[in-house]
Amino acid sequence: MEPLGATTWVIAEGYIPGSSTGPQPQMLSHETVCLLNTGDEDAHVEITVFLADAEPLGPWRVTVPARRTLHQRFNDLTDPPVPRDADYASVIRSDRPIVAQHTRLDSRQAANALLSTIAYAA
Question: pTM surpassing 0.70?
């Protein structure tokens, strides 16, 4: 299949709640970038996080195999970790066209909230 998407994606909204309710890891409050690579070659992706009151973090590097999807939790990005209870934005750059979507699970209350939006492609 032909590669679909773009090589630069921006998620202007980011926030990982600092607490959770329910069983973990399924109900852990988290942010995820869902990446789709429809092409025939692996996509090498860099994720950079921008903060309101500090220098950017990252880039973290992930690979999305050819003709596959990868759901990367921002909670799992370490060295350094993405801060909890802090506003941030992210830029996703890839060496191949991909599609990116943003999802958040907020389980601070027993009535959970799930948010999902398409990222902006440059």
Answer: yes
